[in-house]
């Protein structure tokens, strides 16, 4: 098939990291043998909305595409632009965060697209009847960074962006359970070495971190942003991965992409209990759920002392991911459900 994938290239526009949706909706179908073109809507939008619309429609009209994938974030394209594009080929919106933004964002725009994909099984069940063009596909794993055989030299880690309640959570777990943190807002900046650092290196690192944290906070945030490739490399090195599932808004629990992203890393997923998560992975056998931070810390300490048990659950997590939760499977499902396969 010939597909046009519309996402931003850089992660929230920051040049230190590539947007994961670029891997999901461009790299994965390309690796599966589809002919895939790419349209960076965020870069085009900086020129102006009219230029964005003209450039997008020119590609759609002349591209001969079987489908257009749009990773929705905000109003990438106007209703009029999408209506014109839809006359040339199916336009498929891939939503995220519908657990808290379905009513405010996705639902009012559902009719703008030929098909709209929600990652929320609850939203799909509740709104499919009212929106016949609504499809369901959960987050998944790309398979590009298989870390099952990688050396696990980080005991307990969190890799990702800090927002909302995460700052307090990772701070508490760092003090009580030795959690190591990496990513935007964590103030670690990837200065950590795989082997114990010398006293001189530790002193130099402390100075660097303090200068960045207190003297150059804007630069600190930029430097603490890490690429998706680095994120996966850190998951691959981690025995246990702290997996918070609090939403960034409206204080709800949701299934995050990290649940599936790190599925082939060989890590043990230590995750918040969240709606529907147990339909994807079996608790106690393929991942370990927790409710309180005290429970999380106790479980982390237990599995760090019991490597055979940790490794068994991590391996089962990887097997289930590989069998059922890969991005190429999600894309095939959506194309089939849309009658395009």
From the structure above, extract its key features.
17% strand, five-stranded parallel beta sheet, 341 residues, six-stranded parallel beta sheet, alpha/beta, 14 helices
Task: Summarize this entry quickly.
The chain is of the alpha/beta class and 341 residues long.
Give the helix/strand layout.
Layout: E1 2-7, E2 10-11, E3 14-18, H1 20-31, E4 35-40, H2 41-47, H3 49-63, E5 67-71, H4 79-86, E6 91-94, H5 98-109, E7 115-118, H6 121-127, E8 134-136, E9 154-159, H7 166-177, E10 180-182, H8 199-215, H9 217-224, H10 228-237, E11 238-243, H11 258-261, E12 268-272, E13 288-290, H12 293-305, H13 307-324, H14 327-337
Parallel strand pairs: 1-4, 1-5, 5-6, 6-7, 7-8, 9-10, 9-11, 11-12, 12-13
Antiparallel strand pairs: 2-3
Helix pairs in contact: 2-3, 7-12, 8-9
Strand order of the largest sheet: 4-1-5-6-7-8
Annotation, overall tally of beta strands: 13
What share of the residues does DSSP label as strand, in percent? 15-25%
In helices, the fraction of residues equals 40-55%
SS summary, helix count = 14
Structural class: alpha/beta
Whole-angstrom Rg: 21 Å
> Could you give a short account of the major beta sheet?
6 strands, parallel
Mean pLDDT: 89
The string of secondary-structure elements, in order, is EEEHEHHEHEHEHEEHEHHHEHEEHHH
Poorly predicted regions are 188-196, 211-224
Distance between the termini: 8 Å
Q: Assign an overall shape.
A: globular
């Amino acid at each position: 098939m010939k597909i046009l994938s519309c996402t931003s290239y850089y992660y929230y526009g920051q040049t230190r990291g590539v947007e994961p949706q670029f891997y999901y909706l461009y790299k994965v179908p390309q690796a599966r043998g589809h002919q895939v073109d790419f349209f960076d809507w965020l870069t085009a939008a900086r020129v102006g909305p009219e230029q964005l619309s003209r450039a997008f429609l020119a590609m759609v009209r002349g591209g001969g595409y079987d489908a257009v994938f749009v990773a929705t974030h905000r109003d990438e394209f106007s209703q009029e632009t999408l209506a014109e594009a839809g006359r040339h080929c199916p336009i498929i919106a891939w939503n995220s965060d519908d657990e808290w933004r379905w009513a405010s964002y996705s639902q009012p725009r559902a009719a703008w697209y030929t098909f709209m994909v929600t990652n929320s099984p609850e939203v799909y069940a509740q709104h499919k009847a009212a929106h016949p063009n609504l499809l369901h596909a959960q987050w998944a794993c790309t398979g590009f960074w298989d870390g099952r055989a990688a050396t696990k030299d980080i005991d307990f880690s969190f890799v990702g962006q800090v927002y909302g309640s995460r700052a307090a959570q990772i701070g508490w777990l760092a003090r009580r359970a030795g959690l190591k943190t990496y990513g935007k807002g964590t103030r670690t900046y990837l200065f950590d070495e795989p082997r114990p650092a010398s006293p001189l290196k530790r002193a130099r690192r402390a100075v660097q971190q303090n200068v960045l944290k207190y003297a150059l906070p804007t630069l600190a945030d930029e430097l603490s942003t890490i690429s998706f490739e680095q994120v996966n490399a850190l998951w691959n090195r981690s025995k246990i991965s702290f997996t918070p599932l609090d939403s960034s808004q409206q204080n709800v629990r949701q299934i995050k992409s990290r649940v599936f992203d790190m599925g082939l890393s060989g890590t043990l997923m230590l995750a918040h209990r969240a709606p529907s998560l147990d339909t994807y992975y079996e608790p106690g056998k393929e991942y370990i759920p927790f409710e309180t931070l005290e429970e999380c810390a106790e479980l982390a300490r237990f599995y760090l002392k019991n490597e055979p048990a940790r490794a068994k659950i991590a391996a089962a997590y990887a097997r289930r991911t590989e069998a059922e939760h890969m991005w190429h499977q999600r894309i095939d499902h959506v194309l089939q459900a849309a009658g395009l396969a």
